[in-house]
Amino acid sequence: MQSDRIRPAPAVVVMGVAGCGKSAVGEALAAALGAVFVEGDRLHPLENVARMASGEPLTDALREGWLDAIGRRIAEPVGDGQSVVAACSALKRSYRERLRGFCQDILFLYLEIDPATAKQRVGSRQGHFMPASLVDSQFATLETPVADENALTLDATRPIADIVADVISLFEPDS
Q1: Cα separation of 140 and 146, whole Å?
Q2: For the whole model, what pTM was predicted?
Q3: CA-to-CA distance for 53 and 57, rounded, in angstroms?
Q4: Where does the pLDDT of residue 48 fall: very low under 50, low under 70, confident under 90, or very high at 90 and above?
Q5: From residue 136, how far is each of 34, 114, 126 by CA, in Å?
Q6: Angstrom distance (rounded) from CA 43 to CA 90
């Protein structure tokens, strides 16, 4: 993890490939910050869910409406002065820029994980539409965030509580 202090943003998007822990980390971080939590997977159109469930990766065009729905769900509470934490794969820079079109001030928390661990986690999930067979396509699509994107890279194999504590500590002012 990077050790520099970061400026808290009104919106945080926990991002990465399937199985990296976006939802678990996002929920825990939102609770710790007293922020609204947005679960990106719940905003997929039924057609997208059916495609993924059948093992078909989504195209950029199929992701557009979904990203817009997440962007709107982030922007609404931020516009009302509330903090938001969202779980969204945000795999490409263009996807992250699309989200910023709804809320310019977003901090992206990239949960970095290796393909084998991601496949194992996705394969062991119960009741989720994403099959482990799509993990490779997620890595093929992934464009890791770069320095100018206001992003922090975190080791997704660490315990959730440790990841959240590290993020919270980075928001705290130096003593």
Answers
A1: 17
A2: 0.89
A3: 9
A4: confident
A5: 35, 11, 19
A6: 14
